[in-house]
Amino acid sequence: MGAQWKQAGREANAQKKGQLVNKLVREIMVAAKLGGADPETNPRLAAAVEKARKASVYRDTIERAIKKGSGQTDDKVVIEQVTFEGFAPHKVPVVVECLTDNRNRTAPEIRTIFKAGSLGQPGSVGFSSIATASSKPPIPIPAAMLRATPLKPERRKSNRSKRKKFPKARKAPGF
Protein backbone atom coordinates (compact mmCIF):
# COMPACT_ATOMS: atom_id res chain seq x y z
CA MET A 1 0.00 0.00 0.00
CA GLY A 2 1.42 3.35 -0.99
CA ALA A 3 2.03 6.17 1.45
CA GLN A 4 -0.42 8.47 -0.32
CA TRP A 5 -3.28 6.07 0.49
CA LYS A 6 -2.35 5.99 4.17
CA GLN A 7 -2.35 9.78 4.24
CA ALA A 8 -5.82 9.90 2.70
CA GLY A 9 -7.11 7.55 5.41
CA ARG A 10 -5.51 9.67 8.12
CA GLU A 11 -7.13 12.81 6.74
CA ALA A 12 -10.54 11.14 6.64
CA ASN A 13 -10.17 9.95 10.25
CA ALA A 14 -9.02 13.42 11.35
CA GLN A 15 -12.07 14.94 9.64
CA LYS A 16 -14.42 12.54 11.46
CA LYS A 17 -12.78 13.19 14.82
CA GLY A 18 -12.94 16.95 14.25
CA GLN A 19 -16.65 16.76 13.54
CA LEU A 20 -17.22 14.66 16.68
CA VAL A 21 -15.17 17.06 18.85
CA ASN A 22 -17.08 20.04 17.44
CA LYS A 23 -20.41 18.37 18.20
CA LEU A 24 -19.37 17.50 21.76
CA VAL A 25 -18.01 21.00 22.42
CA ARG A 26 -21.30 22.54 21.27
CA GLU A 27 -23.22 20.19 23.58
CA ILE A 28 -20.95 21.18 26.49
CA MET A 29 -21.48 24.90 25.77
CA VAL A 30 -25.28 24.55 25.65
CA ALA A 31 -25.33 22.44 28.82
CA ALA A 32 -23.17 25.03 30.63
CA LYS A 33 -25.40 27.83 29.38
CA LEU A 34 -28.63 26.14 30.52
CA GLY A 35 -27.58 24.68 33.87
CA GLY A 36 -24.40 26.36 35.09
CA ALA A 37 -20.67 25.68 34.91
CA ASP A 38 -20.42 23.08 37.69
CA PRO A 39 -20.70 19.47 36.42
CA GLU A 40 -21.60 18.26 39.92
CA THR A 41 -24.80 20.29 40.00
CA ASN A 42 -25.54 20.08 36.27
CA PRO A 43 -26.22 16.46 35.19
CA ARG A 44 -26.48 17.38 31.52
CA LEU A 45 -23.06 19.01 31.63
CA ALA A 46 -21.62 16.03 33.51
CA ALA A 47 -22.91 13.63 30.85
CA ALA A 48 -21.55 15.82 28.04
CA VAL A 49 -18.13 16.06 29.70
CA GLU A 50 -18.08 12.29 30.20
CA LYS A 51 -18.87 11.72 26.51
CA ALA A 52 -16.14 14.16 25.55
CA ARG A 53 -13.58 12.41 27.75
CA LYS A 54 -14.48 9.04 26.21
CA ALA A 55 -13.94 10.58 22.76
CA SER A 56 -10.46 11.81 23.84
CA VAL A 57 -11.25 15.52 23.71
CA TYR A 58 -8.46 17.58 25.30
CA ARG A 59 -9.05 18.85 28.83
CA ASP A 60 -8.23 22.43 27.74
CA THR A 61 -10.92 22.25 25.07
CA ILE A 62 -13.51 20.99 27.57
CA GLU A 63 -12.65 23.71 30.10
CA ARG A 64 -12.72 26.40 27.39
CA ALA A 65 -16.15 25.20 26.24
CA ILE A 66 -17.51 25.28 29.81
CA LYS A 67 -16.20 28.82 30.36
CA LYS A 68 -17.54 30.00 27.03
CA GLY A 69 -20.94 28.41 27.63
CA SER A 70 -21.35 29.77 31.14
CA GLY A 71 -20.43 33.32 30.03
CA GLN A 72 -17.10 33.61 31.85
CA THR A 73 -15.33 34.79 28.67
CA ASP A 74 -15.93 37.72 26.34
CA ASP A 75 -17.26 35.45 23.59
CA LYS A 76 -21.03 35.04 23.51
CA VAL A 77 -22.64 31.68 22.92
CA VAL A 78 -25.33 31.88 20.30
CA ILE A 79 -25.99 28.15 20.09
CA GLU A 80 -29.50 27.30 21.20
CA GLN A 81 -31.69 24.25 21.40
CA VAL A 82 -34.62 24.12 19.01
CA THR A 83 -37.39 21.50 19.06
CA PHE A 84 -39.37 20.47 15.98
CA GLU A 85 -42.38 18.18 16.09
CA GLY A 86 -43.95 16.30 13.25
CA PHE A 87 -45.23 13.05 11.88
CA ALA A 88 -43.18 10.56 9.88
CA PRO A 89 -44.81 8.31 7.28
CA HIS A 90 -47.65 6.14 8.65
CA LYS A 91 -48.46 8.88 11.23
CA VAL A 92 -45.55 8.04 13.55
CA PRO A 93 -44.99 10.99 15.92
CA VAL A 94 -41.41 12.34 15.98
CA VAL A 95 -39.80 15.00 18.17
CA VAL A 96 -36.49 16.39 16.86
CA GLU A 97 -34.24 18.38 19.18
CA CYS A 98 -31.49 20.38 17.44
CA LEU A 99 -28.56 22.50 18.56
CA THR A 100 -28.20 25.41 16.19
CA ASP A 101 -26.65 28.81 15.88
CA ASN A 102 -29.12 29.91 13.21
CA ARG A 103 -32.80 28.93 13.37
CA ASN A 104 -33.45 30.25 9.88
CA ARG A 105 -30.98 27.77 8.40
CA THR A 106 -32.07 24.81 10.52
CA ALA A 107 -35.83 25.00 9.88
CA PRO A 108 -35.67 24.38 6.10
CA GLU A 109 -33.27 21.48 6.61
CA ILE A 110 -35.67 19.83 9.05
CA ARG A 111 -38.57 20.53 6.69
CA THR A 112 -36.80 18.60 3.93
CA ILE A 113 -36.33 15.67 6.30
CA PHE A 114 -40.07 15.64 7.01
CA LYS A 115 -40.93 15.76 3.30
CA ALA A 116 -42.36 12.21 3.36
CA GLY A 117 -44.36 12.97 6.53
CA SER A 118 -45.56 16.31 7.83
CA LEU A 119 -44.00 18.92 10.08
CA GLY A 120 -46.44 19.79 12.85
CA GLN A 121 -47.04 22.86 14.96
CA PRO A 122 -45.25 23.15 18.33
CA GLY A 123 -47.10 20.97 20.80
CA SER A 124 -48.83 18.79 18.22
CA VAL A 125 -46.82 15.68 19.08
CA GLY A 126 -46.15 16.54 22.71
CA PHE A 127 -49.90 16.83 23.24
CA SER A 128 -50.45 13.18 22.40
CA SER A 129 -47.24 11.98 24.04
CA ILE A 130 -47.30 9.51 26.90
CA ALA A 131 -44.37 11.27 28.58
CA THR A 132 -46.50 14.23 29.66
CA ALA A 133 -46.84 14.78 33.39
CA SER A 134 -50.07 14.03 35.18
CA SER A 135 -51.36 15.37 38.48
CA LYS A 136 -53.28 12.14 39.20
CA PRO A 137 -51.59 9.41 41.20
CA PRO A 138 -50.97 6.16 39.33
CA ILE A 139 -53.67 3.50 39.52
CA PRO A 140 -52.65 0.74 41.92
CA ILE A 141 -52.44 -2.71 40.34
CA PRO A 142 -53.82 -5.57 42.45
CA ALA A 143 -51.29 -8.21 43.48
CA ALA A 144 -53.36 -10.91 41.79
CA MET A 145 -52.83 -9.22 38.42
CA LEU A 146 -49.08 -9.02 38.95
CA ARG A 147 -48.74 -12.80 39.28
CA ALA A 148 -47.74 -14.31 36.00
CA THR A 149 -49.97 -17.10 34.81
CA PRO A 150 -48.54 -19.45 32.21
CA LEU A 151 -50.37 -19.31 28.94
CA LYS A 152 -51.28 -22.59 27.33
CA PRO A 153 -51.25 -22.66 23.56
CA GLU A 154 -54.59 -23.39 22.01
CA ARG A 155 -54.87 -26.66 20.15
CA ARG A 156 -55.85 -26.28 16.58
CA LYS A 157 -58.52 -28.58 15.33
CA SER A 158 -57.47 -30.70 12.45
CA ASN A 159 -59.12 -30.15 9.09
CA ARG A 160 -58.11 -33.58 7.84
CA SER A 161 -61.62 -34.96 7.92
CA LYS A 162 -62.91 -32.08 5.82
CA ARG A 163 -60.17 -32.30 3.22
CA LYS A 164 -61.14 -33.51 -0.17
CA LYS A 165 -59.31 -36.64 -1.21
CA PHE A 166 -58.19 -36.89 -4.79
CA PRO A 167 -57.56 -40.20 -6.52
CA LYS A 168 -53.96 -41.12 -7.20
CA ALA A 169 -52.66 -40.24 -10.63
CA ARG A 170 -52.55 -43.16 -13.01
CA LYS A 171 -50.20 -43.78 -15.86
CA ALA A 172 -51.62 -43.27 -19.27
CA PRO A 173 -51.84 -46.44 -21.35
CA GLY A 174 -48.95 -46.98 -23.72
CA PHE A 175 -46.19 -45.53 -21.60
General description of the model:
Strands 2-1-3 form a 3-stranded antiparallel β-sheet. The chain is an alpha+beta fold and 175 residues long. Among the domains are: 8-70, Integrase, N-terminal zinc-binding domain (Arc Repressor Mutant, subunit A, Orthogonal Bundle); 80-119. It has helices spanning 3-35, 43-54, 59-70, 103-113, 143-146, and strands spanning 80-88, 92-100, 118-119. Strand 1 (80-88) and strand 2 (92-100) form a beta hairpin.
Which SSEs are present, and which pair or pack?
Elements: H1 3-35, H2 43-54, H3 59-70, E1 80-88, E2 92-100, H4 103-113, E3 118-119, H5 143-146
Antiparallel strand pairs: 1-2, 1-3
Helix pairs in contact: 1-2, 1-3
Main sheet specs? 3 strands, antiparallel
The average pLDDT value, as a whole number, equals 77
- N-to-C CA distance: 68 Å
Helix amount, in percent? Answer: 40-55%
**Topology as H/E string?**
HHHEEHEH
Q: What is the 3D shape?
A: elongated
How are the strands of the biggest sheet laid out side by side? Answer: 2-1-3
Strand content: 5-15%
